[in-house]
Amino acid sequence: MGMGMDLSMRQTLGLKQLLAPRMIQSMEILQLPIAALQERIEKELQENPVLELSDSAPLEPETAEVVEGPAQEEFDADAPLKHDAADPGAELEFKRLEELDRDWEGAFNQEEHRPSRAATDELGDKKLDAMQNILDRPQSLQDFLAEQLVELELSPDDKLLAMHIISFIDRTGYVGRRNEKDQFLPVSLLEIASTFEPPTTLQRVEQVLHTVQHLDPPGVAARDLRECLLLQVNDETEHRALTRKIILDHLEDIQHNRLPNIQKQTGASLEDIHEAIVVIKHLNPKPGNQFSSERTRYVTPDVIIEKNDAGEYDIRLTDDWAPRLNISKKWYQMYKDRGEDPKTREYLKKRLQSAEWLKDAIEQRRNTLERVTRAIVGRQKAFLDFGPDHIEPLKMQQIADQVKVHVTTVSRAVDDKWIMTPRGVFPLKRFFVGAATNKETGEQIPWEKVKKALLDMVSEEDKNKPLSDEELESRMQQAGFPVKRRTVTKYRKLLNIPSSRERKDWGT
Description:
By secondary structure, the protein is of the alpha+beta class. It has helices at residues 2-31, 34-47, 88-103, 129-132, 141-150, 156-166, 189-195, 202-212, 225-231, 240-249, 251-255, 259-266, 270-281, 329-336, 342-379, 381-386, 396-403, 407-414, 447-460, 469-478, 485-494, 500-503, and strands at 51-53, 64-66, 176-178, 184-186, 297-299, 303-307, 313-317, 325-327, 418-421, 424-427, 435-437, 444-446.
């Protein structure tokens, strides 16, 4: 009996050791979006000589332009296969202004920034031409500034120093750099002076910096938010003196809608203050962003959904754009030839096994992704028919139960995958939403509908008497949305809706 148990344990251990690399590879392949899968296949073709491309050539992938859950540890094995920063006080002030800048997200008008472009409403049979072409690399901010320097009457040394300063301008247009976490760090004039060859003085750096600050786009090469906004205020700006004073001393008051405080400190009328604030909100707090190519992301969808003549949705996976793999029979014959060198046969065994596993993992990815997508589309037909406002509550567990796989398999299948639909291009995860339950009716209401109702109520309120969170709670409940005040507060903040005091219109 002991020997039997020992044999059983060894067999089980051997099976686990055999399955582990296959499971790991299947998890990895399933989680890859189509572009990454293509790269993986190309890599395997280079590294494994028994793999080759099949005769059928892959189609060209479509690309779609879009504007931008925790990893699971399990896998279903049964699933189908301004200031000088050298001054510490100034550095703290800069950090405070950076926080203020983040708090002001959305407060400025951004007409000059490139808008996002939704996917077309009609897919039809033809390729989406606008989605097939990825834009050429746009001109960088540094290139644009350098071109302007050529036209300036500067000495060669000053032009070199100006270029040196420009090299310290980050993608948002400020003088600074990004760390490994993509956090902005200011750069001191001392660092700029000491890293120039030959090293120069702070006074000269500041003088040439002011020259760079007069280049386009307005506000470029600033050292903090205040300086950036002040650089954009010129002699033609309405209420110039008041606008400058508000920028210098009252940005926090604007943020918190403390207009009476500005009136008290400046002695200006509410009407003039209103007009000055309108001017400020039309300034660009990040002048370099219009040169950034990161605002638009081009994705290749993994799935395309098209409506057929019967009004149903056809599902087409795009993995047929990936290179097709084949294993030539000659490698199997060579492996079976017992007259072949044992080391060669052992090498071929590993390579053939690796190739078969890869082909199986790719087929498993296709099978699982298709079944999961089909189940999602079946549950979210109203979304596809009428738009995002008609999304239904949906959990990954529901799809897992329907497809009969573990929920972690669903999570991996939808991770970083995009779907092209007649309604636009969406991440597959977009179709999973939580819901609030109306205890009286038992109705499940998607949180997205709750958020939209909250936005509508705030947009329609009397700004002379904006609704408090308690009043919003009452109105939401009267409208059939079962939310508590803390939930109203939570979603108001998530939607960047200011508090009722900050939304108050003080009049003119």
